[in-house]
Fold this sequence. Notes:
By secondary structure, the chain is an alpha/beta fold.
Amino acid sequence: MKLLLIEDDTQLTDSLQPILRQAGYAVEIAHDGIEGEFLGNELQPDLIVLDLGLPNRGGLEVLANWRASGNKTPVLILTARDSWHERVQGLKAGADDYLGKPFHSQELLARLEAISRRQVGQASNQISWRGVSLDSERQHATTTDGRVIELTGIEFRLLRYLMQHPNDVHSKTRLSEHVYEEDQLKDSNVMEVYINRLRQYFGKDFIETRRGQGYQLAPELTP
């Protein structure tokens, strides 16, 4: 999943970026409100972490502008711990959750995971489709016959994105944009390699090719 972190504290972003990457996110960073608002629309991220005390344009204004323009990307706002009024304003403006500073990185990850689950109607960190189960916390998958597959970072991001949007048809470009960070974007044809790897793990019929459109998970098996 692609995550946009909008925070002007470079020390904080430098410390969070590797933690978020390790948790399976492709991370983009903005350090002021104007750039952050633009990237929130341009990149179409899956999640946004938004500091309210931003230079050039405050976080509340950025959030209000997104929601007014129809941008429904889930947003977790960061606020000063004692600024209860900012938390209330942020939630009223359309934020999905908040976290007070200072915070523990594990709490941030847990809240982001919870937001992700709510977006796709999941109740736990386990996602299942056609007998394949993905553990988002451990970043491994279990096949229909019980084998545990340890996934690479790219394989995990790709499988999680497909399983969270199982009924959508995804172009190679779209998949690449959600799996890689902007400065690491690969030729979209590289996606074919990773799609084939997932097919090797879970069966050739697990992912269908829609000619001229892209890829889609095969329909759920009927009882």
